[in-house]
């Protein structure tokens, strides 16, 4: 299982702040506008004193038995911010391509033009050093840098 900073197992019923494992690397995760106010990008606070918004992890698809609410390492999960926005849309994360550059970004809101894999909202929590990192598993699992 994935553990929080107090050693408790993460549960799909809980809300958690995603913070850097070591000081001096910015704050928690938040939502930020890009060119238009909506949809919102998943971004990191630059000020390490800001925790950002809490997130909720839930097992992705049929990856686990419905009664198993424990979030496990290297298992597909969906992630959403446990917060309201002015966008009046879902805060669930998914990987989207920037229209002009083609760069991949993690955004919130409705999924437009799903890929053949249909895994734009599949993420994993992986062990990394003394903590964890988030990876996107849209086509193949790629480090998000968090």
Automatic annotation (TrEMBL):
Name assigned to this protein: Alpha amylase inhibitor
InterPro entries membership: Kunitz_inhibitor_STI-like_sf (IPR011065), Prot_inh_Kunz-lg (IPR002160)
CDD domains: beta-trefoil_STI_ASI
Organism for this UniProt entry: Oryza sativa subsp. indica
GO molecular function: endopeptidase inhibitor activity
Pfam families in UniProt: Kunitz_legume (PF00197)
Origin: domain of life: Eukaryota
